[in-house]
């Protein structure tokens, strides 16, 4: 439950920031950054050591990517 909450909490907390950042970056750059953040988070989850809190960190990164992709 904590891990899933980290993703949705990061997405909700970063939504106002991403909403202000996305128009400044433009559509193409903001979607590229959201894709890179999501891909980086997936790679981090796959390569992370067997420590559970790294999963929370990477899902926080993925949450920011989600917020940027859906401002």
Key attributes of the depicted protein:
about 70 residues; mainly alpha; about 90% helix
Largest sheet, in brief, is: none
Q: What is the percent of helical residues?
A: over 70%
Rg (CA only):
12 Å
Helix-strand category: mainly alpha
- Unreliable stretches covering 5 or more consecutive residues: none
Count all strands and give the number. Answer: 0
Helix count from the secondary structure assignment: 3
Mean pLDDT: 91
Overall geometry: flat
User: What's the N-to-C terminus distance?
Assistant: 25 Å
H-E order? HHH
Percent range for β-strand residues? under 5%
Question: Topology, pairings included?
Answer:
Elements: H1 2-25, H2 27-47, H3 52-69
Helix pairs in contact: 1-2, 1-3, 2-3
Write structural notes for this entry:
By secondary structure, this protein is mostly helical. Helices cover 89% and strands 0% of the residues. The protein has helices spanning 2-25, 27-47, 52-69. It is flat and about 40 Å long. The model has no long low-confidence stretch (mean pLDDT 91).
Sum this structure up briefly.
This protein has three helices and no strands. With 71 residues, it is mainly alpha-helical. It is flat.
